[in-house]
Amino acid sequence: MTASLTCRAPDRASPVGQRPLGVFVTLMPQAYFVERIGGEHVSVSVLVQPGQSPHTFELTPRQMTALSSSALFFTIGMPFEKTLVEKIRTELPHLTVAQADDGIEKRIMATHDHEHDSSAPDPHIWMSPPFLRTIAKNVANALRLADPDNAQDYAANLDAVLVEIDSTDVRIRQILEPYEGSSFYVFHPAFGYFGDAYGLKQVAIETEGKSPTPKQLNGLIGRAKAEKVRIIFVQPQFDRKAAQAVADAIGGAVIPIDPLEKDVLRNLIEMAAKLEIALTE
């Protein structure tokens, strides 16, 4: 799958190959793959820093300045990127923009009632190992186009990464196969693709940036009790009060789980292990 590229860069004062290629990404999980595939040939910066939420992110003037001296920017499909890319095309026409999510068909995020869908696509594609293969290939292709002198290195590194993705996928399937069809409860609905990949269903407390109404919260509590749920997963980027309210009502616990960890493959395996515990109790 080829990465979709826009705003091709003209020749720069320092030719590619004499110094690392300056690359920006939106999220930490992207940085993991750019660094693994790019190796010594890239210098990677990240827009959304640890503890920040990409759903409320605002670009700083310093980051815009840093972008101006970069050669390549990988998007991932977060809503705020649309405005940023338009700004780049106007103010930074030399900067190449590559879509790491190119070729991925996205699911639609469910609303609180879990029966009616919103029109918003779910951007959390890095939570699915099968989609990570596409992301990695898009990264390698964009690096190759931006820096053809090191194309062989990018191809070799891609092959190694794809092997690790497949190994991670197999390991997670072994962990979660006994629980296929089960539901797991989260605060923010960032794990839909993960659930789809392994036959699980996420039940979210917060959707589309909105906490549940008292009626919806009571419905979630009733459902959690019926399904004998004892663990609610919550991301550190969000207020845990609503999740804690559900946990208190069902006599359960709130467990942290971060979909924005940089080492995405290790993080996915650790998530699977936490889910195994939650679904066993």
UniProtKB/TrEMBL annotation:
Keyword line: Signal, Transport
The UniProt record lists the keyword Signal: yes
Record has Signal as a keyword: yes
Top-level taxon in the UniProt lineage: Bacteria
Name of the molecule in the record: ABC transporter substrate-binding protein
Gene3D superfamilies to which the protein is assigned, alphabetical: Nitrogenase molybdenum iron protein domain (3.40.50.1980)
Signal sequence, start to end: none
Molecular function GO terms recorded: metal ion binding
Family the UniProt entry places it in: Belongs to the bacterial solute-binding protein 9 family.
Record GO biological process: cell adhesion; metal ion transport
